[in-house]
Amino acid sequence: MTTIPTVTAHNGFALPAIGLGTYRLDGDAGADAVSAAIGAGYRLVDTAFNYENEGSVGRGVTAAGVDRAEIIVTTKLPGRHHASVKARSSIEESRSRLGLDATDLHLIHWPNPSQDEYVQAWAALVDAQSRGVVRQIGVSNFLPAHLKRIEHETGARPVVNQIEVHPYFPQEEQLAYHRAQGIITEAWSPIGRAQAVLDEPVIRDVASAHGITPAQAVLAWHVARGTVAIPKASTPEHQAANLAAAAVTLDTAEVEAITALGRPDGRLFDADPATHEES
After folding, report:
1. 230: Cα within 13 Å, side-chain hemisphere
2. Residue 106: closest CA among 80, 130, 143, 135
3. Are the C-beta atoms of residues 25 and 56 closer than 8 Å to each other?
4. Where does the NADP-dependent oxidoreductase domain lie (predicted)?
5. Contact 223/201 with Cβ under 8 angstroms?
6. Which of 80, 121, 255, 266 is most buried as measured by Cβ atoms within 10 A of its Cβ?
7. Are 44 and 72 in contact (CB under 8 A)?
């Protein structure tokens, strides 16, 4: 089984460098995929209230038969539940859907800045942590200004910020800010959603040099940069290949060459956290 390096936050909380994304892994097949992934060695599983699969993820975690203390289950609070009362019940509902005594890592999915209730949502997570409903708390898609504000108003700093990171959108400035603050960067859609990334000559060259697939080369790039990648994988073969990428070491030149693929218009869709609103 591949030994997975970890990334550590300001409070000592650590995440494995590669986890399992579960978007659209639902129903019995989703539960089976989660269980198989844990059996293969995954110890970080990522879902969200809005993925509508928390029940399947929870069943998969239970069915895996692995010591619960070894598995970090992450979920996310949706935009429509930011107000204090809604946030509290949503956090508890996620725990019920998952069938767990507590969620290991609970994030705010998007800041929804025009709604301007994300500080209330963050305060609800701080309270949930104090009550033992949630073990660790973080955010997703927050910009530095959002991060500074929630810490200033509550005194609590997130352990994680899950953001869009892939070769076309490497986010160097935001990653540097996270490192300075001791905030773990998690990358959603870490490989991108287009074959174009995997067809890039530089990525194919790196893959060839290491005897790995282009997708593994991209995941190794994430590991080298200290970001936690959470690619979705439903088949045992795909799950094993993604996890094996954690053992691949890229040199500085290879990392820089992949990072150089970044584009000004590199986002996968119109999801700038300064303006995007999630329901």
Report:
1. 25
2. 135
3. yes
4. 18-261
5. no
6. 121
7. yes
Q: Helix crossing, 118-130 with 144-154: angle to 10°?
A: 50
152: closest CA among 123, 115, 186, 185?
123
Among residues 60, 108, 63, 114, which one has the least CA distance to residue 86? 108
Give the residue carrying structure tokens 């409903």. 133
User: Which tens digit of pLDDT belongs to each residue from 72-117?
Assistant: 999 999 999 999 999 999 999 999 999 999 999 999 999 999 999 9
- Contact indicator for 87, 125 with CB cutoff of 8 Å: yes
CA distances for 57 relative to 39, 97, 235, 237, 279, angstroms: 14, 9, 15, 19, 22
> 244 with 43: CB under 8 angstroms?
no
140, 151 contact by CB (below 8 A): no
* Biggest CA pair distance of the chain: 54
The SS3 assignment for 224 reads helix
Element (H, E) at 184: strand 184-188
From the candidates 23, 42, 51, 177, which is the catalytic residue?
51
CA contacts within 13 A on the Cβ side of 167: 29
Token pair recorded at residue 99: 């069938």
Note whether 27 and 56 are within 8 A (CB): yes
Its pTM stands at 0.97
For residue 177, the SS3 value is: helix
C-alpha torsion sign, points 15, 180, 165, 79: positive
pLDDT tens profile 22-80: 999 999 999 999 999 999 999 999 999 999 999 999 999 999 999 999 999 999 999 99
Contact indicator for 222, 215 with CB cutoff of 8 Å: no
